Amino acid sequence: MVQYLRTPLLFLGASFQHKEERPLENLWYPPFAGTCPVLGFERGLSSLPPFLPLGGWRGRGEGLPPPPMIRRSGGAKRGAGEAVEALPDPEREGERALEPGKKGRMLRGPPPPPPLLVAFFFLALPLVPGRHYPYSAVLDGASRYRLSWGVRGSAVAFRLEVRTLGYVGFGFSPTGAMASADLVLGGLDRGKPYLQDYFTNADRTLKKDSQQDYHLEYAMENSTHTILAFNRQLHTCDPNDMSITESTVRVIWSYHDKDFREGSQNYHGSNRGTKSLRLLNPEKNAFIDPSLPYFDLTNQGVPIPDKDTTYWCQMFKIPSLHEKHHVIKVEPLIQKGHENVVHHILLYQCSSSLNDSVLDYGHECYHPNMPDSFLTCETVIFAWAIGGEGFTYPPHVGLSIGTALDPQYVLMEVHYDNPSYVEGMIDNSGLRLFYTPDLRRYDAGVIEAGLWVSLFHNIPPDMPDFISEGHCTQECLEEALEAEKPSGIHVFAVLLHAHLAGRAIRMRHFRNGDEQQLLAYDDDFDFNFQEFQYLKEERTILPGDNLVTECHYSTLDRQHMTWGGLSTRNEMCLSYLLYYPRINLTRCASIPDIMEQLEFIGVKEIYRPVRTWPFIIKSPKQYRNLSFMDAMNKFKWSREHGVSYNDYVLRLPVNVRCTKTDNAEWTMQGMMTFPPEVERPYKKEEVICSSASSLNCSLFVFLFIVLYISTTAPRNSVFVV
Fold this sequence. Notes:
Elements: E1 2-5, E2 70-71, E3 85-86, E4 95-96, E5 106-107, H1 115-123, E6 135-138, E7 145-152, E8 155-162, E9 168-172, E10 182-189, E11 192-200, E12 206-208, E13 215-221, E14 226-233, E15 249-255, E16 272-277, E17 294-298, E18 302-304, E19 309-317, E20 325-333, E21 342-349, E22 363-364, E23 379-385, E24 391-392, E25 397-401, E26 409-417, E27 425-427, E28 430-436, E29 442-443, E30 445-451, E31 458-459, E32 466-472, H2 474-484, E33 489-497, E34 502-511, E35 514-515, E36 520-522, E37 533-541, E38 546-553, E39 562-563, E40 574-580, E41 587-592, H3 594-600, E42 605-607, E43 616-619, H4 628-634, H5 639-650, E44 654-659, E45 672-673, H6 692-712
Parallel strand pairs: 25-29, 30-41
Antiparallel strand pairs: 1-13, 2-3, 4-5, 6-7, 7-8, 8-14, 9-10, 9-15, 10-11, 11-12, 13-14, 15-16, 17-28, 18-27, 19-22, 19-26, 20-24, 20-25, 20-28, 21-23, 21-26, 30-40, 31-39, 32-38, 33-37, 33-40, 34-35, 34-36, 34-38, 41-44, 42-43, 44-45
Helix pairs in contact: 1-6
GO molecular function: copper ion binding; dopamine beta-monooxygenase activity
Family: Belongs to the copper type II ascorbate-dependent monooxygenase family.
InterPro entries: Cu2_ascorb_mOase-like_C, Cu2_ascorb_mOase_N, Cu2_ascorb_mOase_N_sf, Cu2_monoox_C, DBH-like, DOH_DOMON, DOMON_domain, PHM/PNGase_F_dom_sf
């Protein structure tokens, strides 16, 4: 096994068992790893300063190899099973006796370092980042490339474990492609480690970054795998680097069986890919007892039609529990091969007056022939979207089941996305719910907030950044909260939801004219990666607050209007808030004033041939007898018109939608109100381009030099700092 370590603490010779992912076990390295090139730790052990007393300070752990003082025959890369020649050890020329009663062999070595020098390193431990990777993800389908990471203050540490003995590539990209990417290439070439910071321009030309912001901590190989551990600051303020935020990050990866060298043609070929992740999403996978009971809600042999969009609804009955329990974890059960077909799953609570006859069959949702029983299912109790993983509730919160107020019948709505019109697909996807009789303190609830899904949410074509806003108004929140929880509710997770044109979503929070810190945001929204964001700190929503879901869209690739609707080619602008304690509110949304939208294109008068939708335009003449959609489509939209319309619609009064959990309406339903007036916008903290690792290294070097001189200089010497 070949190892490369970068640490100023090698002289301690600490040895212990490495307990990270297999297959690389029983690795040797010091318990602390930092980056301090000033001390000469850039090129491996051969470059260690001569005053560090490595010889004789080698710790021996049972079953563990000694420190990696090695060399290869001929300098070539070692193959599987090839022997490694140990470097000569001048300290093993003799042995000295052990104390009486001791067994074994004691190596003769130099005297220990001065106590002050030893004490210094223990005092300096806080300056050296530890190894802790609470998150991990397999980036490829063959489990050859594993990423682990952890946040260390203003920096993030990465560990790559890749099945190759060549180079490893890793980085970030705005789109998941190689254009305009921020990346590193690393490995071990003939035992010499390398890690270089690169970037690509718009034409994907690879260039070395003049500002090297990725710092290698250690590198190693065994007969099959390469491991690289390195770190970088979240914000480097290097124009060629991407900042790491709480938004979605499109990670790009690659590897090759040969090492990378400047000017080489070692192209990774098909050994590459991309995966969307949230690197800063707080840790969520709390331990759940595997013996906990669970029940599955899965479709049984649903034929997916050969059409673009299908919403399939199926009724289920919650198991009879006879007493209150809490659901504490929900996992998606997506049929293998359908990961890109199952777009999202919503679970609704239905009327308790139903009977088991509703369980006989499923049906297409929102269809004229849909069973009437489906109309009683309005309260969202859980949401999952494409790319998301399992969700674990906080230790003090659970989804209540088993009481008269809890769901007995639920409706599972599955959105199938089949843009290629594939025929013959049969699906059995669904959800798995883990529950416990050990009750949590609070019952969880879900509020759907944002724009009411309808064609009155519309986006002109050829727009690079069109903004839509959905309002959970102060009137709705005040009425619902004052009636049940005047002290407010506490939000602990948010799922932001849009479709293909979505580029960014923000959940804004207003109180008494002051804009609060964003409740949640994703400035790099990925349609194929939507999951609940755990909030770092729970946020309290009070009566009279305003919540605004702000969605940014790009329609540069579209020649016609984009409408709010169910298809992935339609759009949505929604936030699902997980909160506690549960109150009688399931939807808090809005619609921009319809008539005033039409006034932008010159409509002066409308009428309704029937008391319900749709209404018909009466004047002017060019729009006479057209519907809302037909008139908006007929208008000749230009980029300038789109920009003006965006500014116009954001200032329109909105129609309030405020729905109770039993499908009844709060009295605020249907009233008109205006968006909140912001007296004091929230001032985002300025990004600080920190170089904490460099500062720590400089301080470390300074202290080291002072103590080294003080412990090695002749007595009565005088030195000045």
